[in-house]
Design the sequence.
């Protein structure tokens, strides 16, 4: 299945661009998408997306206009926004 991934800065540094299309096996989850990005780009991608434990996302994932959990099942044609934490004060 194909999904479109939009990177919101600084997560965009993973690909060096704002969005990509990625081919994933049917039944993949957001976790599988992250694994594919880390496989494709190495540890630097993981450092921008995952916390130091390598398992917990540092960013939010938005599908269909809502934040979804890390184990959210993706469907062919989904658009996934990778949004870094927002800091304010």
Sequence:
């Amino acid at each position: 299945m194909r999904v479109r991934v939009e990177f919101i800065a600084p997560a965009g540094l993973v690909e060096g661009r704002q969005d990509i299309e990625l081919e994933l096996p049917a039944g993949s989850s957001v976790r599988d998408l992250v694994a594919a990005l880390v496989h494709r780009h190495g540890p630097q991608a993981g450092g921008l997306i995952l916390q130091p434990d390598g398992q917990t996302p540092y960013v939010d994932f938005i599908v269909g206009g809502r934040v979804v959990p890390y184990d959210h099942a993706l469907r062919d044609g989904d658009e996934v926004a990778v949004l870094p934490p927002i800091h304010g004060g």
The chain has two helices and five strands. The beta strands are 2-7, 19-23, 60-63, 66-68, 79-83.
